[in-house]
Amino acid sequence: MSSDTPPAVAEAQDEAPKSSAPRSALTAKAGLGDRIFGGSARGAAVFILILMAAIAGFLIYQSVNAISKDKVDFLTSFTWDPDGNTTANGDAEFGIAAIAWGTLITSALGVLIGAPIAIAIALFITQYVPRTLGTVFGYVVDLLAAVPSVVYGLWGLLVLDQHMSGVSKIIEDVLGWIPMFKTNGTYGSSIFTAGIVLAIMILPIIAAISREIYKQTPREQIEAAYALGATKWEMIRLAVMPYGRSGVTSAIILGFGRALGETIAVAMVLTSVPGLVTRILQPGGNTIAANIATAFADAFTTGRQALIASGMILFLLTLLVNYAARLVIRRSAKKAGA
Amino acid sequence: MPRRSQDERDFPVKFQRYGAVAGVAVAAALALSACGSDNNSSSSSTASSGSSSGSSASACPSGTLNAAGSTAQANAISQFTKDYQTKCTGVTVNYNANGSGAGVTAFIQKQADFAGSDYSLSTTQAGQVTTAGRCGSGKAVDIPAVAGAIAVIYNVPGVTTSLNLSAKNLAAIFDGTITTWNDAAIVKDNPGVTLPSTKIQPFYRSDTSGTSYNFSNYLNALGGFAAANKQWPGKAGQGAKGSSAVAAKVKSTSGGIGYAEYSYATQNSLTYANVSNAAGAFIKLTQDNASNFIAQAKIEQSGEDTKLAFNYQYSNASAYPNTLVTYEIACGTGNDSTALPLIKGFLNYVVSSTAQSELTGLGYVPLPSAVQTADAAVVNSLS
Questions:
Q1: Per mean pLDDT, which range of A286-290, B5-9, B186-190, B328-332 is the poorest?
Q2: Tell me, what CATH number does A279's domain have?
Q3: CA of B210 to nearest chain A CA: how many angstroms apart?
């Protein structure tokens, strides 16, 4: 035993005052290395806290500055003209409502389209294919997450958008009686297209997490389900899906969070139109993140502060979504426990 | 038990040593990167003024000149830069073509020595110059530098010829009152052309743009459109960021129509319209026609500030009325003393007849000689 004592311990021994036997690392008195490491770890933690506080302070200061100059209601107005380019006296007029709505509706569409496919992929990989093939398949899905979002944006703009008018037209023909699915006869560059791009972008996240969760379904539960005479589908419904519910929910929320903050792909696909866009098949729409990306370069002082204010709203939205996710998980965990 | 204690001794101790080093490194990297990002803007500006120090008032200064702004004049400026750097080997000119609005912002925030802009400084912006003390107690001046034509580009299935689109019809299209290509008002102006019933999809610049300003100015003068604005004032259509995005959208959208500087139309091989002049005649877009129209522009000089006002009532049959002029914006007085010889040297070259005559090959239009003379006087008076 003492022959394979690593040199590190020998050094520690030198520092320690007169110890006869080699001691466990856990009980050794803190040496110089410990103090440096402990100190730097503590320093890093404190530094992060200070940094966060500084960022929050900066955001709040800038936002308050901008909102105090706003001549319309920041939370309910649909216009975005903080530099007063089109207003009567060059007054700042901007509101978050239209772009916040755009952010929520594109992300919700992305999750609605992406999540069922992602969950189906996860179930397929864990339950239907042999383990080795499943691993390979999993890698391919994970690769989707490695594609930079600007590439998705380019693809959405140059390829997907060209093919959206046909699909959009069919949807309008079937569901046109719902105001949301009506158009003015033009399609493409729409919230719907952006939603599909977002769906593909968040698919690998949801699929990867769900896959890991479904993989851990207890063998006994699966076999118990089979023993009760369940078919494969019934087994998945009885054993696998209830087991993974809370984990998959949080995977979906994570995907939703990614969709909320996605910037460049959305900015490339969507064209901006003034005001609130409620018709999701018709061109036009905007999100908070895309608005920041496109409007920041030529914004003046108030414009920049207003964009920072919108960024803070996005931050709050994301926080709310995360909090909601935790509530859901806690509740379902309780249910599973009871 | 013995196995576990060995594990603990072997692994955590080694880890501890590496861990300490890594921890320090990470903390240091964080601290360094935090400082770095804070200092970026100031360090770049000190570098530029430092490198331009030691310049003299001779014909060829040396140093680095930083400018930003209009994408419409980007091709011209890059040609001028190449020529000027060949002439004066000690000079480096950086022109960041990030849009007129962004360029003026950079100028006011002292990140650029001068700005390229497709519209003269607005009162709001002039106020911002004063508030920021950009030019000390002085004011910023506009210097007309590069002129060009605006092409009305469109993608109408089955139409490969130049359509006749009057200012009135264009105003109606961009306000959403004409919505299909076979609208009676368009058909009337285009006898012999079969127009489809495709929906019209107007595209405009979503960012603040001099092209938007000049095009809306034309539509306002001759088509009863909303007042000229760098933020597109139309009521219909979709916004795209930058001329290239507008051109790309028009190209890929059946029924699309938009506007951009002439070279974007030729580069994207898009068809462009003949637009109407004050007499209601349809004028073909050629460089000569645009040049004829720009020659009629009135020079509006107030102090050192020089603006060009187009004469939209000029109705010569070979004058294309949908044009733009881009400006360079610099401080009339109160320029940075190290950058001043560079600004004067480069801008003097830009407004010279040598440089202006090169513009034709790039798809632009040379400034009339009267404007060149007025410009040279302004540039020489900069201090």
A1: B5-9
A2: 1.10.3720.10
A3: 12
pLDDT tens-digit series, residues A118-169: 999 999 999 998 888 988 988 998 898 889 989 999 998 888 988 888 888 8
> To probe the interface with B, which of A163, A298, A302, A304 has the most B CB atoms within 10 Å?
A298
* pTM for this prediction: 0.76
Interface test with B, best of A3, A48, A79, A271 (most B CBs within 10 A): A271
Q: CB distance from B212 to chain A under 8 Å? A: no
Q: What is the nearest CA distance from A119 to chain B, expressed in angstroms?
A: 35
| Spatial CA neighbour of A104 closest among A194, A177, A210, A4 | A194
Q: Is A275 helix (H, G, I), strand (E, B) or coil?
A: coil
Residues 34-73 of B with CB under 8 A from A: 34
Residue A295 lies in a domain: yes
- Exposure string of A299-329, with b = 16+ CB inside 10 Å and e = fewer, is bbbbbbbbbbbbbbbbbebbeebeeebeebb
- Looking at the domain assignment, is residue A29 inside a domain? no
| Residue A45 included in any domain | no
pLDDT digits (tens, 9 = 90+) for A179-224: 888 888 788 888 999 999 999 999 999 999 999 999 999 999 999 9
Q: Measured between alpha carbons, how far is B367 from A129 in angstroms, rounded to an integer?
A: 72
Percent of chain A with pLDDT over 90: 36
Across the A/B interface, how many CB contacts are shorter than 8 Å? 124
| End-to-end Cα, chain A, rounded Å | 49
CA B14 to chain centroid, in Å, comes to 59
Residue B271 CA, chain-centre distance (Å), reads: 22
Q: Does residue A146 sit within a domain?
A: yes
Residues of A in contact with B220 (CB under 8 A): none
* pLDDT tens-place string over residues B118-144: 888 877 778 888 888 888 888 888 999
How confident is the prediction for chain B on average, in pLDDT?
A: 81
Q: Are A25 and B8 within 8 A, CB to CB? A: yes
Query: For residue A324, which of A237, A260, A276 has the smallest C-alpha distance?
Result: A260
Q: Do A47 and B207 touch (CB under 8 A)?
A: no
Closest-approach residue (CA) in chain B for A301? B105
Do B83 and B349 meet the contact criterion of CB atoms below 8 Å apart?
A: yes
User: Confidence class of residue B17 from pLDDT cuts 50, 70 and 90?
Assistant: very low
User: Could you give the number of structural domains in chain A?
Assistant: 1
Tens-digit pLDDT profile for residues A269-327: 888 887 888 888 888 888 999 999 888 877 777 888 899 999 999 988 888 888 887 88
Please, which residues 118-177 of chain B have a Cβ atom closer than 8 Å to chain A? Answer: 123-125, 128
The tokens of A75 are what? Answer: 């939370």
Comparing CA positions, the residue from A102, A96, A103 lying closest to residue A310 is A96
* Residue B202 φ/ψ, nearest 5 degrees: -75, 140
**Higher per-residue confidence, A30 vs A225:** A225
From residue B256, how far is each of A112, B72, B153, B209, B248 by CA, in Å?
31, 21, 8, 20, 10
Sign for the CA dihedral angle at B102, B103, B108, B110 comes to positive
Cβ–Cβ under 8 Å, residues B242 and A298: no
Of the candidates A4, A37, A85, the beta carbon closest to that of B208 is on A85
**Is the distance from CB of A272 to CB of B206 less than 8 angstroms?**
yes
Which domain does A189 fall in, by range? 93-337
Half-sphere exposure in the Cβ direction for B277 (13 Å, CA): 23
Put simply, the chain A residues between 37 and 56 with a CB less than 8 A from any chain B CB are 37, 40-41, 43-44, 47, 51
Residue A196's identity, in one-letter code, is I
Closest CB to A90 among B14, B124, B252: B124
ipTM: 0.74
Beta carbons of B9 and A6 less than 8 Å apart: yes
Measured between CA atoms, the residue of chain A closest to residue B108 is: A300
Tokens 């998705």 — which residue? A152
